Amino acid sequence: GCELDLAFAWAKWWPQSLLLQGLREVGVECIQADEGSNNADIMLSLRAMKEVNKRAGLGQGGIAYVAFGTDKGFSHLLREIRTTKGWKSVYVTSFEDPPSILARSSSEVLYVRRPDRGKKKPVKSLPLKKSRRRRRRPKKEDQSKTLDRSELDTSKKDELEKLLISLIGEGSVNVATLGQRISAYQKNNGLQEWGSKVLLKEFGLTGSLNQVITREFSEKISAKATSFRTDTSTGKEIPTSFEYSVKRTEEEPDPIPVAPFPQVDGFNNSLGLALPREPSDTALVITQLPSAISS
Q1: Are the CB atoms for 195 and 179 separated by under 8 Å?
Q2: How many domains does the chain have?
Q3: pLDDT of 88 higher than 80
Q4: Residue 279: how many CB atoms within 10 A of its CB?
Q5: In this model, does residue 129 exceed pLDDT 50?
Q6: Where is the composition biased (Basic and acidic residues) (predicted)?
């Protein structure tokens, strides 16, 4: 997938909101909407058209991704962007059956699949003391050793591969989580610029993080598509977001040592004519006897 040039989100943000913190970690500029109903929607629409018209006036084209629920009022924004020369509007939604007016007004519809929370196994309640102890335990993915900045040689691609593997850790992570870990790693190492683009630039690589992983590191890092957009002209689903995990190589078990076949007097341990010691060699001798006798 491509990386965004600009990313904004409008809402009446609560300062301690986990969503707010998560969006900021991946480089989304979160703007506080004014009090009153629909202010966030109006601010989004005005800024979107301002950016599209400014770029269209310079002869630039592009794609505007607009994410919201099922508010039909956004059909005007989607249509205005779609009819601007060189521009496409993509309606981003997790609703499987959104209003048809929104789908018709946009160039394409990007369906982001929600995780299936209904299939989670029930969690067994524990006594208070045991519950506290479990919450303090770090997850396996947090226990993976992250390479120190001073250990990295940015002239070698395999050094980036090692870093990404250490950031992914155990299990799997989505694009946003991996982006958060990259930014946190850069902050912890005192860098002034953050994000996957900055990291890739250090190693002299171009393209998006997903393109680099699938092109350069597919032998050790698995990329699984998790969300898709529908191409309106072909009807095909095109992957737009991925989940990453480290491929595990199973070591071949050591061969079981086999003791030599025992020697038996008068059978395979006698002077003069005797059968071979190993049964496999004896079988070979027996199969060759007819040809030896006939000759």
Answers
A1: yes
A2: 2
A3: yes
A4: 11
A5: no
A6: 139-152
- Looking at per-residue pLDDT, the higher value among 254 and 5 belongs to 5
Residues paired with 29 in a beta bridge: 8
Residues 92 and 144 in one domain: no
- Token readout for 187 is 């902050």
DSSP 291: H
Same domain, 7 and 109: yes
Q: For 34-52, b where at least 16 C-beta lie within 10 A, e where not — what string?
A: eeeeeebbebbbeebbebb
The residue written with tokens 């300062």 in the block is: 15
In angstroms, how far is CA 63 from the centroid of its own chain? 23
| 131 assigned to some structural domain | no
Cα(64)–Cα(43) distance, integer angstroms = 15
Position with higher pLDDT, 253 vs 70:
70
**Residue type for position 176:** A
Residue 76 shares a structural domain with residue 143: no
164: nearest Cα among 120, 99, 223? 223
Structure tokens given for 201: 């630039």
Per-residue model confidence (pLDDT) at position 281:
64
